[in-house]
Amino acid sequence: MNSDKNLETMPTLAPASRAKLRHMLIWGAVALAVVGGVLAWQHLKPQGLPPGIASGNGRLEATDTDIATKTGGRVLRVLVREGDNVKAGQVLVIMDTAVLEAELARAQAQVRQAQQARTTAEALLAQRHQAVTTASAMVAQREAELALATKDWQRAKELVARGFLPPQKLDEASARLQGVRAALSATRSQVAEARTAITTTESQGIEAGSAIDTAQTVVRRIEADLNEATLRAPRDGRIQVRAAQEGEVLGGGGRVLSMVDLSDVYMTFFLPETAAGRVAIGSEARLVLDAASQYVIPAKVTFVASVAQFTPKTVETAVERQKLMFKVRAHIDPSLLARYTSQVKTGMPGMAYVRIQPDQPWPAQLDVKLPAEPAPASAP
Fold it and tell me: Which residues, in sequence order, are bridge partners of residue 13?
């Protein structure tokens, strides 16, 4: 070392003095290095957040939807894989419908049977009405015959009383009158019977109509089950989990797939009471993900819990009140998500920053920085 050489060139110093001077130079160099490091760290360290901005850690989340069976059955085909992006209405799963198709054929046959019963009842009803018309005409005829027989009986009675006719003529007129009365009574009974038959036939028609309605209801229910046997995507999203394979038998409500709605992505985080109480719905937020800390994603606060999530049993002092943590949720703009659909990944941890003072400007490190938009997928 040069210092050693310099010390050696000082013949006037004693050995003890030279050793002491050497230690002083070494410790001076160390102190200078420490001071330089501290100054460099102070210059290069990231600046802290201003008092008008609060932060909390959380994870990206999205609305989850389970694609499940409405009724039990066997999985016939699964048309998507985990990670596939799907569109609303896209067919995802086809269930085996052999049993439902057999039940539908039987219900349709019951509809046809009930319709035939109603047609028969309508034809029979028309016949009953015709029988009433015929019987009513017979009643009119019998009433005319009764009137004539009554007149004949009265004339015969007068002529017999005067001696112009023998008594047997009166007997014959009486017998004919009694016969016409009996025929009239029988015809009137036929009219009543025909009208009763009409009522019975109308009831049969009503029952046939009810049977048709019941059978058609069963048909519609089975057709709905057949339609539900084709599982479709309720909205745009990405398949996250494939819980069942082709050939598996599932019960009613059995989950086949799980998907996330990539148009509804948000981060849930927690803020202390002093910060959450100053966050307004609609406030601007910034999200920074751990896996891509070079980017800053804009968001908006859409939810602030009205009840603390972590609350001590007794809150008596101001220090304890500051321990109250409130859940806050910040949503990413759906139009922004649509531009980066292929890069959106839920479950990623990160930090959320919100402005608790509306006039507080964002620091430079929280200016919005987004990656380059991915090229559109080429058409197949």
Answer: none
User: Hey, is 34 helix, strand or coil?
Assistant: helix
> Which residues, listed in sequence order, are joined to residue 261 by a DSSP beta bridge?
63
**pLDDT given at position 323:** 65
How close are the terminal C-alpha atoms of the chain, in Å? 73
Catalogue the long-range contacts made by 368-377 (C-beta closer than 8 Å, 24 or more residues apart).
368/286, 368/296, 368/297, 368/298, 369/294, 369/295, 369/296, 370/295, 370/296, 370/297, 370/336, 370/340, 371/292, 371/295, 371/340, 371/343, 373/339, 373/340, 374/340, 374/342, 374/343, 377/342
CB neighbours of 293 closer than 8 A, spacing ≥ 6? none
pTM more than 0.70: no
- CA nearest 232: which of 97, 79, 81? 79
* Amino acid making up residue 264: D
Q: Are 202 and 125 in contact (CB under 8 A)?
A: yes
Instruction: Using a pLDDT cut of 70, give the percent of the chain over it.
Output: 82
pLDDT in tens, 62-80: 888 899 998 888 999 999 9
Q: Which residues sit opposite 85 in a β-bridge?
A: 238
Domains of the chain: 53-65+257-366 (2.40.30.170), 67-97+229-242 (2.40.50.100), 99-227 (1.10.287.620)
Nearest to 274 by CA among 47, 48, 52: 52
The full DSSP string for 253-291 is T-EEEEEEEEEEEEEEEEEEHHHHTTPPTT-EEEEEETT
Residue 358 CA: distances (Å) to CA of 87, 285, 331, 367:
38, 11, 18, 16
Q: How far apart are CA 110 and CA 372, in angstroms?
A: 63
108 CA to centre of own chain: 30
Q: What angle do CA 191, 133, 128 make, to 5 degrees?
A: 70
Amino acid at 238: R
